[in-house]
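Record type: ASSEMBLY
Status: queued
Input:
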Amino acid sequence: MTAKPKLAVFKFASCDGCQLTLLDCEDELLAVAEAVEIAYFLEARTQEIEGPYDIGLVEGSVTTDHDARRIREIRKQCHYLITIGACATSGGIQALRNWADLPEFVRHVYADPQVISALDTSTPIADHVIVDFELRGCPINKQQLLSVLLSLIGGHKPRLPSYSVCIPCKQRQTVCVAVTRGIPCLGPVTQAGCNAICPAYNRECFGCYGPQQQANVPSLTHQFLRAGADRGHLVRLTRNFNGYAPEFREASNLLEQHD
Amino acid sequence: MAPRHLPVGSFVRIDKHDLQSILDSLSQRGYRTIGPRLRDDAMVYDELTRVSDLPIGYIDEQDGGRYRVVSDPQQRWFGYVVGPHSLKNFVFPPHETLLRSHRDADGLWSTQTELPETRPVAVLGVRSCDLRALRVQDRVFLEGPYVDVHYQSRREPLFLVAVNCARAAATCFCHSMKTGPAVRGGHDLALTEFVDHFVIEVGSDTGGEVVTETNWTPCTIEEVQAANDVPQRLSSAMQLRDKTLPASSAGDVEVDHPNGRYLDIRGIRELLLDNLEHARWQAVGKRCLSCANCTMVCPTCFCSSVEEVASLTQDNVERKRSWASCFTAEHSYMNSGTVRKTTASRYRQWLTHKLATWHDQFGQSGCVGCGRCITWCPVGIDLTVEVAALRGDKS
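Status: finished
Output:
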């Protein structure tokens, strides 16, 4: 990598929240700008420096033919390509269309449906090109983003947890909402990264960081069903921001099959 | 000359409301006083300066993957048993900085070991199983070839007011592990609760000093006997309930023991180590979530992960230690990859270490029968059922 790596940020189908995390670094932003050359980041600056880039951060999922062609070009331009967020990593909330009829949606939403040219599916970046590292979350965590950038600048492999949300949840001494109140919570099957924020506010985890490394979703949903949870609720819980991630997708399909 | 304070081994009686003066005395001595509090639907350890803040009149109902607080018709002060927290949280906290390094303008590094704040902690309401768990951790952190100074600095000033259990949850099996319910050592004071008074056994010189300052009266022989009888009667009840258990639950994952757990520890090391390829490991691996809750709540699990965290300028580096778990891929990651790839292999590692190879490593069991791993497992995996299944197929 060159002395001051060139960083580019690209957007696909997404809400911009993950890119915003980079701007949200605030206190660290100047240090980031010192450490890397922000070469292409349309949300932050209009100046566009041409590739190739050392680090490419990709937000959003592939939902059009144009997206599918563009990501291949971007891959050629980036030494390291890192996806940021649930959309880029698993297709995002818009991947709910993968279980539905897109023309039907379009007909209801747009006055002139013929202007819409979209694929039937929303798919993660890794379905189209090789991804070097996936940064999870909806949105991503600022500290994790900084940690990954620091690793790449320092020339070592990023080190982020692949384990469950329950580990930070117990570390911050939150009392388990599933065990004490019988609330279906995805914490045990979801990857850490948010510091278990929802259970700390008496809410269930709804899987923003996608499946943990060893996610055993059917065992967890089976337990919730036994304890009296509504099957439809569990389908909606697993089919969420990361619903199209394989482990969540298979579990929600399984729940639906037994309906 | 009469001793200036009540000697170790003496039994005294205090009125229930005088427990406040023990808390006050500890505060005056500089202790941060901790005790059971009802928070977020569970009994947790938290700051406790007034005995009226104890969960008086509440008990806990526990079972696999289930914990509920209900009211106690007997209105006891200590009718509940163990919650999700244990003494581990105070002596081996979830996160701590071990050392800090700084690079100055000339590029020279300086490094300092970071010792925790020195304010000593006093914990009220500690149960026998947790005292025994502390001894297990002492063996790990203090009695090996390397003394952990971070653990030591918290452990040595720790003041412990224990409680003899008068009630067991369905997940308790201290009687099987011979770790309870009676408090036997490791405490500064041990309380036994009665309707309108506590009997206190003095367990240390500091404990004697603290009680001497309260409004105490000497116990009659009958009162001492009554205090000893409380955990003894509970122990007998726990033993009797054993007999109602099914002999084996092999192959059946729906086993439910409303009447309490039991773990047959006879020859357990060999039982586990001779059955490393038993089909039961695969069966439990299908249910296990690899979420690590069991290891987080276990009062003896001591694994940690140490990481160097640098500032963006890379001039400041902190060495941080956090609780880790053998249920993660990271735990067995080496340069060639993750050694224990399957959940079944991780569960087997945890259980065989806890109940079998812990004996080889530390000369004792790693399990104290507190039942936390059963209660706080989101899918209610029960080690007593797993061991019974392994044993059932053998016999």
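Annotation: Chain B is about 30% helix and 20% strand.
Annotation: Residues 243-258 of chain B have pLDDT under 50 and may be disordered.
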